[in-house]
Automatic annotation (TrEMBL):
Protein name per UniProt: Ppx/GppA phosphatase
Alphabetized InterPro entries for the sequence: ATPase_NBD, GppA/Ppx_hydrolase, Ppx_GppA_N
Lineage: Bacteria, Pseudomonadati, Pseudomonadota, Gammaproteobacteria, Alteromonadales
Organism, as annotated: Ferrimonas balearica (strain DSM 9799 / CCM 4581 / KCTC 23876 / PAT)
Keyword Cell inner membrane attached: no
Keywords: Hydrolase
Amino acid sequence: MVKPQTDPSDTLVAAITLGSNSFNLLIAKTGPAVPTIIAKHKRKARLARGLALDGHIGDDAMAEGLDCLAWFGELLKQYQPARVAVLATAALRQADNAAQFIAEGEPRLGYPIEVISGQREATLIYQGMRAATAVTGTVMVLDIGGASTELVVGDEQAMAFKHSFELGCVTTMQGALQQGISADAFDQVAQTVSEALAPFAEQLAPYHGIEALGVSGTVRSLFELFEARGTPLEAITPIELSQVRDELLNLGHNALPGLDPERVPTFAAGVALLTGFMTALELPQLALAGGALREGVLVELARELADTDR
């Protein structure tokens, strides 16, 4: 997972997450509390496109991703962090040509790539949320990614439930929403979510309706959408979700005020998934968390670095 540098006095750590829709690099300075982020770098690398169709990372996405890794490699040479973690998530868990991408990507990046399990991803997401969000007591955390959705329930001491579902906004866009945005497609997604949650009904029953936080791009985009319209929200409720759903159904793939037109298809898929989860879990509202996977990785790296210094 990590590749230490030789300078023990260096307090910088780097977390790279290779997501299904984008690649991210965070550089942070360690300290007595939560690591302080000093630089963020992000690039679209749509690895999940095509997964729902043939389980394959396409040539364009492959080239896009490898180019990004080369760029990250140059940035890491500049920062010279003491520790680096490079974690790949759902797209590289699922793709049948993931090994090829990793074999070509590691030399460009200069660090090993670790493909993490959905359960480990859920743990890191929860860890990052707790480190970066002022919340107490038992909460539910929902992260809708490009090719998977992680659901975690826990308090300050431990997680009571965690699971990674192979349901993401990009794969859903290429599946249920492939023929366009429609009421039938939204209903199909809701049914898929309900079926995915069914095996865990007994475990999740005590947590229906509890405080919930979202950490995904979809959730962040929803908050940004309402803020751009001059009506900022403290939390998303079924009312706002229904409003956005109706707008999407009326607009189709056309521009949605406050949202980049290119993002409409994946955003619509994310809204459909979020609606399905909030309905099935009877969540009255969903707030925006302050951190997720990347922040969780930084916390883990800082802890490892502190342990080696003892």
